[in-house]
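Work Package 3 (structural annotation) set out to generate three-dimensional models for the target panel prioritized at the project kickoff. During this period the team completed the workflow that converts sequence records into discrete structure tokens, so that structures can be stored uniformly alongside our sequence database. As a representative example, we reproduce one entry of 426 residues exactly as it appears in the project archive.
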Amino acid sequence: MSAVVSQPLPNSWEVKKLRYLTTVIGGGTPDKSKPEFWDGDIPWVSPKDMKKSEIFQTEDCITEEGLQSSATNLVDPHAVLVVVRSGILRHSIPVAVNMVPVSLNQDMRALICGDTISPRYLARFIEGYQRQLLSVWSKEGATVESLDADEMASTEIAVPPLSQQALILQFLDSELAVVDTLIESKQKLLGLLAEKRRTLVAGAVMRGLDRSVTLRPSGVEWLGDIPAHWEVRRSKWLFEERDVRSTTGEETLFSLRMERGLVPHNDVSEKKTLPEELVGYKIARQGELVVNRMRAATGLIAIAPEYGLVSPDYAVFVPSTAIECDYYVELFKTTLLQAVFRSESTGLGTGSQGFLRLYSQNFLALWFPYPPLEEQRQILTHLNVERVKIDKLATATERSITLLKERRSALIAAAVTGQIAIPEAA
């Protein structure tokens, strides 16, 4: 029977290949260097718009001239839109139905349904069988995750009578509304936990742990008031830049990652490096501060876990023995400090083509809070304890979201293959 549906189907249902149920329309991108092609009134769907089950509007729109001058096509309402090329296809197939006329970019396909299948039913089928369809549709050897058009067209779909499709959709709309509300509430909880984590860190590193302590003006405009017994010190008194280069390239190369810090490059990249390629790279010793100058304003700052190499574009600083470097990494990753770093960054190149970098002289000229060394350690201990609590709750919440999504898919799959008895009065 079908490559994805293994259950027996009700007698009144048919099994048909997708190519006999739909007509496929592709997309394209108008020339982005021509402003007359853009900011029109025709929605232009790309993978970033595929976050809801129904498409009414898109981030980008094109003009009639842009539509006529490119490979994109105008798609009438009630087509099934599918992402066919994107990294998201590693784990899911975004699918939606357009409720207004749209155009598509080249990473999208529109399935125009014939008389025997409802667009919303087909979209639900794909949604419920994502895991199985990915195993069949994924294109082998593609540099970016892609779906194979021939495999898609050859896939057999369970097709009940149209009246039964309508009942199934009515049933799923009712049942999924409950599950989706639960998922949404748990996702909101994750957002609240993330905000609590950020507030916890910012409050501790800029105001300390004792909320009853007397405050005084810091004299630093962005910092505001600080505990009266704290000092403020210039960055150059806390850090000293160190620029030593490798002569052999044989040391371990580290890459800076947002959540993981400095990790061995070969563990996170498919492109392996040779020693001769790393001659001239900067040496970072264990405990030294490493700053991605171009992305310091996004929090790409970490402490070297061991002796190794980092990109020549990074800055390496030796921390003073009078500080806990981890305390300052916590400070530098706050939203406020990221804004400060952004304001202190300067550009390379001209106009909109320039890149902003936090140069060492700008970083070393900044003033930072300086709690007593023992208090820095107390703050770090407190943050570690509280973060464990928050992260434990976040992990449990993420797990419950995963289970709800699995239940959601199972419910859809059962309904679109006749495994659930749906009454006429659904």
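The chain has two domains: 14-159, 209-370.
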